[in-house]
Specification:
By secondary structure, the chain is of the alpha/beta class. The chain is built from 10 helices and 12 strands. It is elongated, with a radius of gyration of 21 Å.
């Protein structure tokens, strides 16, 4: 079985795969010419969507493609084939994303940045913080990552609500509602945490009307997709005091260009798409598990429905 590894860290992936599946024939690179040469023989593909899209555009097609990203938007571009099995990275980002969210929730509740600013100004800042116990968090996107975040936050006594494509019963959430209830539930939340994938239904949903529904004391965290946020409307909401702050991990254009309003928006923290990096060890475990499923004709973990976009 030939496996094409299209990854910046292809050597590490190959080393890990040799330990778990030494029978595989591995070919890895992050260079377009080498990848095209390796793809010519037909193979299973493992790697970054941005490195694999050029191969699809050249007419190469995998027997099966395992993305090393949770997001597979580049592979859904118009004109690309959809008649092959595609799986996204699932089940490996939950804890690291939960740690990211908890970090910023605690930092906000404990006024960490305000205290740092006070220290820089040599001003004694002794405003008392509140406890997370009794706070309300709205997690928008309740898949495996959103559920992991909820399970991480629950022991702190946070009241958890969720938004999904359809309402459902899903502990520890008190309620999981559909997208139609987003604005209503947003108005009750102290923390608004976006973890939605990029689909036509989730683009531009955080706009002027949404921010007008939020509590002025609320913190907005976007660790989902940048296209979900109308940038100008978020900046305006911060200037107008409609939000206490925002933590933005993902942007419409990355790297964020110089001069973008996010750079100097008040109370906005940029974290540079670092919330949940792929752990190659966990990804290789997922790949080997899925490889066994694929070879046995069984359902794959994280298989993408091209019509839904995730």
């Amino acid at each position: 079985m030939r496996v094409l590894i299209a990854e910046a860290e292809h050597a590490l992936y190959a080393e890990l795969l040799r330990e778990q599946a030494p029978e595989l024939e591995l070919r890895g690179s992050d260079q377009p010419d080498a990848l095209a040469e390796y793809a010519a023989g037909g193979a299973v593909w493992l790697g970054q969507p941005d490195l694999l899209v050029p191969l699809l555009r050249q007419g190469f097609q995998p027997q099966w493609l395992q993305s090393t990203w949770a997001g597979i938007t580049p592979l859904l571009a118009r004109g690309l084939p959809t008649n092959y099995p595609l799986t996204r990275a699932v089940g490996i980002f939950g804890q690291v994303m939960a740690e990211y969210v908890l970090c910023h929730v605690l930092a906000h509740e404990r006024q960490l940045l305000a205290r740092l600013a006070a220290q820089v100004e040599q001003r004694w800042g002794n405003r008392q913080p509140q406890s997370l116990n009794g706070c309300r968090a709205l997690i928008i996107g309740t898949g495996d990552i959103g559920l992991s975040v909820a399970q991480f936050l629950a022991p702190f006594g946070i009241e958890l609500c969720g938004i999904a494509s359809q309402p459902r019963h899903l502990p520890p959430f008190r309620q999981v509602a559909g997208l139609d209830d987003l604005s209503r539930l947003a108005g009750e939340a102290d923390y608004l945490i976006n973890l939605l994938p990029d689909t036509p239904a989730t683009r531009d949903i955080y706009d002027r009307a949404f921010f007008a529904c939020c509590k002025p004391s609320a913190l907005f965290i976007n660790a989902g997709r940048g296209v979900a946020v109308v940038d100008a409307d978020l900046v305006a909401a911060l200037h107008q005091g409609q939000l206490a702050g925002a933590v933005i991990d993902v942007c419409r254009e990355e790297p964020l260009p110089a001069g973008h309003p996010f750079w100097d928006a008040p109370r906005l923290l940029l974290t540079g798409h670092s919330s949940a990096p792929t752990d190659p060890r966990l990804l290789v475990q997922l790949f080997v598990d899925n490889l066994g499923r694929w070879q046995g004709g069984n359902a794959l973990r994280g298989q993408v429905d091209f019509a839904r976009g995730y």
